[in-house]
Structure formats: C-alpha cells, structure tokens
Amino acid sequence: MADVRIRVRPNGPLLVEGSFDLVDSADATFPSNKDKPVVALCRCGTSENAPFCDGSHNRSGFKSEPLAPSE
C-alpha cells in the first residue's frame, strides 16, 4: 500500500498526507510544496482555489460526514 493517507474531515476537506502528485484532466501536475506535509482538497465545490480547499465550506453551509462501514 502507498504511503499516503487521506482523511475525510467532518463538513470539510479531504486531508492528504504523504508524497503524491495531483494531476489535472490534461495530465498536467499541480505545483506542490514538498515542505508542507498535508494538503487539503476541496469537497464542497465552492473553493476559489480548486482543487485545494480555501475554507469556503464554512460559508457555504456544506454538510457531509461520511463514515467508513463498521464491521
């Protein structure tokens, strides 16, 4: 398994930890800051800095807290 961990934040972004490339639909790679250990990706669709989170979910009233199934 890859050394990447993705956390779903309640009513917020996806937090991606680890080394990865984020690639757009034209196969271009978004610039990344290798010194930043966590990247927040937008889930609400209202970020003006998409695909990255800019906190817009707080103003838009975005609500979502998916939980993994319990066994």
What does it look like?
It is a single chain. With 71 residues, this protein is mainly β. The protein has a domain at 1-19 and 36-64: 3-Layer(aba) Sandwich (Ribosomal Protein L9, domain 1). The protein has one helix and three strands, in the order E-E-E-H. It has one helix at 56-60; strands at residues 4-8, 14-18, 38-41. Strand 1 and strand 2 (14-18) form a beta hairpin. The longest helix is centred in the last third of the chain and has 5 residues, at 56-60. The mean pLDDT is 94.
* Arithmetic mean pLDDT: 94
Query: Helix tally?
Result: 1
What is the helix content? Answer: under 10%
- β-sheet strand percentage: 15-25%
Give Rg in angstroms. Answer: 13 Å
Order of helices and strands: EEEH
Catalogue the unreliable spans. Answer: none
The CATH topology name of the domain at 1-19 and 36-64 reads Ribosomal Protein L9, domain 1
Q: Which word captures the global form? A: globular
CATH class type of the domain at 1-19 and 36-64 = Alpha Beta
**Name of the CATH homologous superfamily of the domain at 1-19 and 36-64:** CDGSH iron-sulfur domain, mitoNEET-type
> Alpha-carbon distance between the termini?
21 Å
Q: Give the strand line-up of the largest sheet.
A: 1-2-3
In CATH, the architecture of the domain at 1-19 and 36-64 is 3-Layer(aba) Sandwich
Main beta sheet strand tally, sense and closure: 3 strands, antiparallel
Secondary structure: number of strands: 3
Structural class by SSE content: mainly beta
Query: So what's the oligomer here?
Result: single chain
